[in-house]
Each structure stands twice: as C-alpha cells, then as structure tokens.
Specification:
This protein is an alpha/beta fold and about 325 residues long. The chain has 9 helices and 13 strands. It has one domain: 3-Layer(aba) Sandwich (UDP-N-acetylmuramoyl-L-alanine:D-glutamate ligase). Belongs to the carbohydrate kinase PfkB family.
C-alpha cells in the first residue's frame, strides 16, 4: 500500500442504532447512530494508540456506507474499501437495547445479504501486505457468507506468504451459526494463524477443550501449532501461553458504562504493545488497561489515548486537574 503499515484488519462494520437507556426499541422515538464491527473496533482502538492501522471491507457507495468510513477515518484509521453499487447492496445494521437486571441487554442484527457478504479478495487494494507487520481478523467474518469465508482464507494465506504476523479472535456469535459449524471452520483456519485470542467459555463450549485455563491454552497451542494463545476469562483476567511460558494478567477496576467492544479493546491494546516491540506480559497489561478504559465509554470504539492507558498502568486515577 505504499507505506509502512503496522496493522491491517478485515471484516464487516455495521451501523449501530440504540434507543436512550431505559427505552425500548418498539416504543422509542430516538435512535443514536454509531458504527460497530469487531475488526474496525480493533483498528480504531489501535490507531488511537498511535498504531498505523488499515481496515479492509466492502460497503455500498451510499450515504450509509460513507458514514461508516468517515467515522473510522476520524479515529485515524486508513481504509481499503471495495465499493459496491448501492442499487443492489445494503449496509448491515444492528440494534442495542441496553437494560439492567433482570432484563439484560438485547442485540438485534439486521445484516443478511449486506454488501460485505459478496466480498472477494480481488476487490481489495493490491499490495495490502507490503510493509505490513500484523494482520487481524475474527471468527465473525467467515460466518457471514461463503464468499466472506473464502476471502478470509485468501487474506490469511497471503499474509502468511508475505511474512506478516496473523492474529485471530474467535469471537463466536451464536446468532450467526451453530457451535459445530463454527468449530469446523475455526479449526480449518488455525493453520493460518500465529496468535489466537479465545474466551475460556468458547474454548470449552465451541472448541470442546478440557482442563483448566493453562491446559486449554497449552492444548490449543500444541494441537494447532500456534505461536501464542491468549485466553480471556472475564473478571478473572487473561492468560497467555507463548515461547514455553505462561503469563497471567488480572483486570483493572472500571465502572461499566458500555461493555460492548471491551474484547476488541483488549485486542487493540495487546496488539499495540506487541507492534511496539513489547513482550507478551507487557501486551497483556496493555490489553487489560485498554479494556478497562473502554468499559467507561459508550459505543463500540475505545476512544482513548496512550496517556490514559499509561495512567491506568501506573495506578493513577481521580480528577484530571
């Protein structure tokens, strides 16, 4: 792409529509519009931490498609978009209705037959992995269509041939496919992955792993010839196995305003530190700090700075005077 790129991500981004807190989708008269997509969330979070990040995708050349690109560019993300004819394509959307106990939060997807489901690698910019350090995608993308799965494989293979580090977040979504379908596809992709991020719950329920956290991470590492496995454990923090060592990281205390995108923020922080040359333990710390900050922010994207991450790591808090 003509310049050094720290991070390339690939996946669909949708418009996120949310009623005010306390209101229901079926009765609200107002919807807040934001963007949301796992891979673009990672790109935006990393870009805000001074990573040179590019997001690849396909969108209709319409006001809605351009709205997504404009918002991501505002966070410093460069974009490589395959633009589709708006007459025959659409932008995916999803709706979030926030609710506390006992109702909980509800997510409603409206993304079937979006422009992204027709994506082909040949539609994306040439030379995307020239002078690139890391390529990241997630398990959401291959669930969207056969074309999206095929393009995911094509890009992972191309990144590997270019010597780019490939990272993959399992990101299982039960509303997209069954555990059996997901497991079959995930395991076929692992041969093209260097670093795997996976929630412990999904490792057990989707990948059918057994044992404690260390056993699960070691098993995935050896069974699939991975370089690093990062196992996230919710309130218990994260654990990583890499280079024969086990590293653990707790969570940082945070008030939760919006938990959506927390996992993507963790990945953004982790990858930022690794791209900077940091070791896995340092990357886990950065991931945990970035995730904690995200929980205090509305929307999918971690709208943060390096200074804020460093402040969390240094244990500073209180009023900024």
């Amino acid at each position: 792409m003509g310049r050094v790129t720290d991070l390339v991500t690939f996946g669909e981004t949708m418009l996120r529509l949310s009623p005010p807190r306390g209101e229901r989708l079926e009765t609200t008269r107002n919807l807040e519009v934001q963007t949301g997509g796992a891979e673009s969330n990672v790109a935006a979070g990393a870009a805000r931490l001074d990573v040179n990040a590019v997001w690849l995708s396909k969108l209709p050349d319409s006001p809605l498609g351009r709205r997504i690109v404009s918002e991501l560019r505002s966070h410093g993300v460069r974009t490589g978009i395959a633009w589709a004819d708006p007459a025959g394509s659409r932008t995916g959307t999803y709706y979030i209705e926030h609710g506390g106990d006992p109702r909980g939060t509800n997510v409603v997807y409206d993304r079937s037959d979006s422009a992204f489901t027709t994506i082909e690698a040949s539609e994306l910019p040439e030379g995307i992995f020239e002078n690139t350090t890391t390529f990241h995608t997630t398990g959401i993308t291959p669930a969207l269509s056969e074309a999206a799965e095929r393009t995911t494989v094509d890009l992972l293979e191309a990144a590997g041939e270019a010597g780019v580090t490939r990272t993959f977040d399992l990101n299982y979504r039960g509303k997209l496919w069954s555990p059996a379908e997901a497991r079959k596809t995930y395991e076929s992709l692992f041969e093209h992955v260097d670093t795997l991020f996976v929630p412990r719950r999904d490792a057990i329920e989707i990948l059918e792993c057994e044992g404690d956290a260390v056993d699960i991470a070691h098993g995935l590492l050896t069974d699939h010839d991975l370089e690093t496995v990062v196992l996230t454990r919710g309130e218990k923090g994260a654990l990583a196995v890499s280079d024969g060592s086990v590293h653990e990281q707790g969570t940082f205390e945070a008030d939760t305003h919006d938990a959506i995108g927390t996992g993507d923020a963790f990945v953004a922080g982790f990858l930022t530190r690794r791209i900077d040359g940091g070791a896995v333990p340092d990357a886990l710390q950065w991931g945990a700090a970035t995730a904690a900050l995200k929980r205090t922010i509305g929307g999918d994207i971690a709208v943060i700075s390096r200074e804020e991450v460093e402040s969390v790591l240094e244990g500073e808090s209180g009023i900024d005077r």
